[in-house]
Design brief:
alpha/beta, Four Helix Bundle (Hemerythrin (Met), subunit A), Rossmann fold, 2 domains, eight-stranded mixed beta sheet, 14% strand, binds guanosine-5'-diphosphate, binds magnesium ion
Length: 303
């Protein structure tokens, strides 16, 4: 995972021949690092923040006459990237489901993102994950726009034994989601997972529809779903969805493919929301918890 980013960061680290940390040598290194980060699809704003934080850390260290500048840089870079990957707010989905269950409410989770990023499959994977943890789920087929989307979700529901609440294509997406919530309340189902339409990210109709779903269903969690393969356009997507509907968490799919990896670093920073899961394949079990501490080794090699 994130092979390219790691390789390029390693290359830059290898080139460090600094014998002392001076403002000049620090700024030369961070300049080069910024370039590498941006080339590997880290958003410019995020790369700026990483380099600025790193400079601050290193210039403090400058005065302590650190004996090994290179290992100081590596340690500091790991710390800085970890800070960026760790948003202020953490999300524990299982804890949220349990709390909602105590209140006799279903936890409502809505999934958003452009076409083809893996929203529907992520819902199926999450349904399976929650079932495996002993919670009951219902799916809401609130993508009433894309041909085949309702059947696609119904097929997952059939395989997993999860009820799908659906209407016909073209029907009001918010109404479908609302029906699913009522179903969950009456049957004491623990979690409602709402699928939504994607279309293209610039569609203002879509944003109006998504906002309506949010105002009608008041989701406990709004999850942005992104495709790691889309690279730089992922950055504009996450920024737009966060601005228009506000997101609480993200799922990053297709990290099983050869991705540059920079996008993962940027999502958390730009949305100020944690990545809760990563999608690592097309099977129902190909959903892994995103643990920033585990990811860091994939980006900056250890000392
Ligand atoms: N390799 C891989 N493929 C994925 C992953 N997540 C989704 N896909 C595939 O991406 C395609 C689009 O997924 P879908 O759930 O229909 O996306 P949606 O349009 O956002 O609902 C499907 O062929 C999925 O099997 C993943 O983590 N890894
Ligand atoms: Mg879909």
């Amino acid at each position: 995972m994130f092979d390219q980013l790691r390789k390029n960061v390693s290359k830059a680290l290898k080139k460090i021949t600094i014998t002392e940390l001076s403002p000049k040598s620090i700024s030369r290194f961070t300049k080069e690092l910024k370039d590498i980060l941006i080339k590997n699809e880290v958003a410019v704003e995020t790369a700026d923040v990483i380099c600025k934080k790193l400079e601050e850390k290193l210039s403090k260290a400058e005065h302590t006459r650190f004996s090994k500048p290179k290992s100081m840089i590596i340690t500091s870079l790991r710390e800085v990237i970890l800070e960026v990957l760790n948003p202020h707010q953490q999300i524990d989905i299982l804890k949220l489901v349990k709390e909602a269950r105590l209140q006799k409410n279903p936890l409502i989770i809505a999934f958003f993102g452009v076409n083809g990023v893996g929203k529907t499959l992520s819902i199926a994977k999450m349904g399976k994950y929650l079932q495996d943890k002993g919670f009951s789920c219902v799916f809401a087929a609130a993508d009433t726009y894309r041909a085949g989307s309702i059947q696609q979700l119904q097929k997952h529901g059939e395989i997993l034994g999860i009820k799908v609440i659906a209407q016909t294509y073209g029907s009001d997406a918010a109404a479908v989601a609302y029906d699913a919530i009522n179903h969950a309340i009456s049957k004491e189902i623990n979690v409602v997972l709402i699928d939504t339409a994607g279309r293209i990210e610039t569609s203002s109709n879509l944003m109006a529809e998504l906002r309506k779903i949010c105002s009608v269903t008041q989701p406990d969690l709004k999850i942005f779903v992104g495709d790691a393969l889309t690279g730089n356009s992922l950055i504009s997507q996450v920024t737009l969805f966060n601005k228009k509907i506000g997101i609480d968490a993200a799922i990053l799919n297709k990290v099983d493919a050869d991705v540059k990896g920079g996008a993962a670093v940027s999502i958390t920073h730009l949305s100020e929301s944690p990545i809760v899961f990563i999608g690592t394949g097309q099977g129902y079990n190909d959903l892994e918890q995103f643990v920033p501490e585990n990811i860091i080794d994939n980006i900056v090699p250890r000392n």
